[in-house]
Amino acid sequence: MSVTKIKICGLRSEEDIRIVNRFQPDYAGFICCSRFRRYVPSDTLEKLSKLLHPGIRKVGVFVDQPVEQIAQIARRQQLDIVQLHGCEDERYISELRQLIPSEIRIMKAFQIHSAKDICQAEASTADDVLLDGGQGSGQTFDWRKIESMNRPFFLAGGLNPENVEEAVRLLHPYAVDVSSGVETDGHKDEEKVRQLISRVREMDV
Ligand SMILES: O=C(O)c1ccccc1N[C@@H]1O[C@H](COP(=O)(O)O)[C@@H](O)[C@H]1O
Predict the structure, then answer these.
(1) Cα 138 to averaged position of ligand 1 atoms, centre (Å)
(2) Which residues are catalytic?
């Protein structure tokens, strides 16, 4: 059985929480940046958090926001992971590290275009790194570029129930991270979530 972890991201409603509680991914992601369509305001996130199964770790996704704002949300919402999905640099990560409790992990997302992006991801001081093709746009990238990645990583970008097994088999990510690929008409689709999770968990890797 696969040990690959699974993150379902972009949850917005009580129905989405019901779906993840049923199929139990390892992580649930919430978009905390108001510029994006899957944004969840703090009061909604608080309500959804109360409904989330306690065994599913809670990830807040931020894009180039002030570190003080992230720290406040991370504490108030008791996030397990702060995901930085913009152009945040090393200095930014160390400033944020000073402001949040050490048990909250910092995950830095890198959009992979060139070898330089891989080098930056490998050298990042973030607790975790995520390799992606976009920002929740369902856009994949050239997986061959990361075949020799030298640290564990979350893999995102255009994953779906049809391609996730190939991604796990080829790249051996620590975790797969999916948003658009488990949606239909912009909403989480229970059957797609079920298929994705069961296909990853049934893999023998
Ligand atoms: O999902 C979003 O709306 C989003 C907005 C801003 C930054 C990141 C966002 N999502 C992240 O994108 C990947 C999943 O992308 P995909 O839709 O499956 O291709 C994942 O890391 C989300 O956290």
Answers:
(1) 8
(2) 9, 132
CA distance 158 to 111: 12
Q: Which atom of ligand 1 is nearest to the CA of 10?
A: 1
Whole-complex ipTM: 0.98
In this structure, what CATH number is given to the domain that contains residue 169?
Answer: 3.20.20.70
Task: Tell me what pLDDT residue 120 has.
Answer: 96
Q: Is 63 in the pocket of ligand 1 (CB under 6 A)?
A: yes
pLDDT digits (tens, 9 = 90+) for 42-51: 999 999 999 9
Phi-psi region of 117 (alpha: psi -120 to 50; beta: other; left: phi over 0): alpha
Counting as low any pLDDT under 70, the low residues of the chain are 1-2
- Please give the pLDDT value at position 130: 98
Q: Is the CB of 4 under 6 A from ligand 1?
A: no
Domain hosting residue 118, numbered range: 5-201
Structure tokens at 149: 């990645």
* Runs of H (alpha helix) within the chain: 14-23, 42-51, 67-76, 90-99, 115-123, 164-171, 190-201
**Domain count along the chain:** 1
Model pLDDT, residue 147: 87
Ligand 1 in contact with 48 (CB < 6 A)? no
- Do residues 171 and 143 lie in contact, with contact meaning Cβ atoms separated by under 8 Å? yes
38 lines ligand 1 (CB under 6 A): yes
Cα 204 to ligand 1 centroid, rounded to whole Å = 27
